[in-house]
Amino acid sequence: MGPRHSCHKKAMEIVLKVVQPAKELALSPAEAETDGRAPAWFDALFREHYPRVVAMLARLTGDRGQAEEIASDAFCKLSKGGACLSLPSERHTPWLYRVATNAGLDALRRNARRRQHEQAAHVESLRSATAACALERILSEERRARVQAVLAEMKPRDAQLLLLRADGLAYRELAESLGVQASSIGTLLARAEAEFERKFRARHGEGI
C-alpha cells in the first residue's frame, strides 16, 4: 500500500470517526413512514433512501433534528413534482441526494457562523469539568468543527460521496446516489479523498 493510498484511507477514517456518528442519529425504516397517500414509486424511494439521506445529513451537521428537517424538505420537493419529475425515473435519486446535500452544506455553513458566537460560552462551561475531561471535549469539538469546515468548502458531490462512503455504502449504492456508473466510483472517491486532504492541510496547516 503506497503513501498516497494510506493518506486517502486516513481521510476517509477522519470523516467516519470525527463527525458525529450517524448510527446514533439516523432513523430506522420503521420511523420513516409515509402517510400512505404517496404514489408507489415515491413510497419505494422514500423507504429505501430516507434513512440514508438522514444519516448522511446527520453526519454532516451533527444534528439529528436538523437532518430530519432537511431530508423531509428534499422529499417534499420531490413529491410536489415540478421540473424534477420531468426527469427519467433513474434520475430522481441523484436529484434527491443533490438537493439534500446542497441544503445540508448550506445548513453547515450557517451552523459554523452561529458556533463562532457560541464558542466562548461553550468553552467556559467546559472549564467546570475536570481538567482532563474538559481538554478532551474541547479537542473533540475542535476536531469535528475542522472536519465540518473542510466539508463545507468542498464540491457538494465530493462531500456527498465521502459522507455516504463513511456510512458504509457500496460502490453500486454510491453510483445510484450520484447517477453515475459504478465503474467510475473508485476514481471519483480517490479524487474526493485527495481534495479533502489538500483542503484540510491548506486550512489547518497540518496533516489529517
What would you note in describing this structure?
By secondary structure, this protein is an all-alpha fold. The relative contact order is 0.14. It starts with a helix and ends with a helix. It is globular. The protein has one domain.
What is the fold's blueprint, element by element?
Blueprint: H1 3-18, H2 40-61, H3 64-79, H4 92-126, H5 131-153, H6 156-166, H7 171-178, H8 185-204
Helix pairs in contact: 1-6, 1-8, 2-3, 2-4, 3-4, 4-5, 4-6, 5-8, 6-8
Summarize the helix and strand pattern as letters. Answer: HHHHHHHH
How many beta strands in the DSSP annotation? Answer: 0
The portion of residues assigned to helices is: over 70%
Q: Per the principal axes of the C-alpha atoms, what is the gross shape?
A: globular
Low-pLDDT windows of residues: 24-36
How would you characterize the largest beta sheet?
none
- Radius of gyration over all CA atoms, rounded: 18 Å
- Provide the number of structural domains: 1
Give the termini separation: 18 Å
Mean pLDDT: 77
